[in-house]
Amino acid sequence: MSKVELHNADGRWTLTLNDPDRRNAIDAEMRDALGDAIAEVAADRHARTLVVTGAGTAFCAGADLPAMFGEPGRGVAEIRADLHRVYDSFLRVRALPIPTIAAVQGPAVGAGLNLALACDTRIVGPKAKLIASFTKLGLHPGGGCTWFLTRALGPERALQLLLDGGSVDGPEAVRVGLAATLADDPPAAAHERAERWAALDPALARDIKTSVRTAETAGFAAALEFESWAQASSATGPAIQEAVAAFRR
Q: pTM for the complete prediction?
């Protein structure tokens, strides 16, 4: 049985980390399977959405620490190269042009936290915990964690959370902006949202995602310029013409 399960329903993809006995910790096998799974979604020109979740009670317990750091005598360069391979396996989700949703029903620790934060939006459950425990292990944060948390929380809150090696539960994650939605059943809520988004014109959904990222990183003028192109492009589609016809009646 693969440690990552991938399912496609008419372009609505679901990626499930599937090693519940080990709380879906990312070892070498899962790392490779995760990277391959995201690459498969990226190669599907009919893909509409992706839901990422974990089997069992945990979303993901992070990287397999003994495998990553348990071998004595390795130098910084060798460890760094291994870390980049782990980073790449889950950060590929950021490059997907389709909307991505993390359904976090339990703990998301370290690299698991980063995987959730790499998705466009997060739906968390009452038992979810977003855990940045790096300093409690004597580790500097990695995998984009400082960037993700600073962007979501601001530098002061991010610094506090990272230095404390702290955690945020599901309701608090929604309150502070690390997640958008609290749901009793995060996977079910994520699939419901994915179904709505998948019903949109695929180009419209992709362009809105690009527009939001442009607004976040490139300023007002660049966002306005992209919007003018994307809105003009969408105005050539059948849906707006039907709306115009209905307005005229």
A: 0.94
Q: Which of 13, 81, 83 is nearest to 48 (CA)?
A: 13
Residue in this structure with the two tokens 């899962």, named with its chain if needed: 30
Instruction: Judge contact between 77 and 42, C-beta under 8 A.
Output: no
Q: How far apart are CA 106 and CA 156, in angstroms?
A: 26
* Sequence-ordered list of residues with C-beta below 8 angstroms from that of 43, at least 6 positions apart, any chain: none
Neighbours of 157 (CB within 10 A): 16
Give tens-digit pLDDT for 16-25. 999 999 999 9
For residue 243, count CB atoms less than 10 angstroms from its CB and return exposed for 0-12, middle for 13-18, buried for 19 or more. Answer: exposed
Q: What is the rounded distance in angstroms from the CA atom of residue 203 to the CA atom of residue 211?
A: 12
| Residue pair 105/189 in contact by the 8 Å Cβ criterion | no
For 88-108, what is each residue's pLDDT tens digit? 999 999 999 999 999 999 999
Q: What pairs with residue 16 in β-bridges? A: 5, 53
How many CA atoms within 13 Å lie on the side-chain side of 109? 21
List the Cα angle 66/108/38 in 5-degree steps: 85
Position 129, amino acid = K
Q: What angle do CA 175, 180, 184 make, to 5 degrees?
A: 90
Amino acid letter, residue 183: A
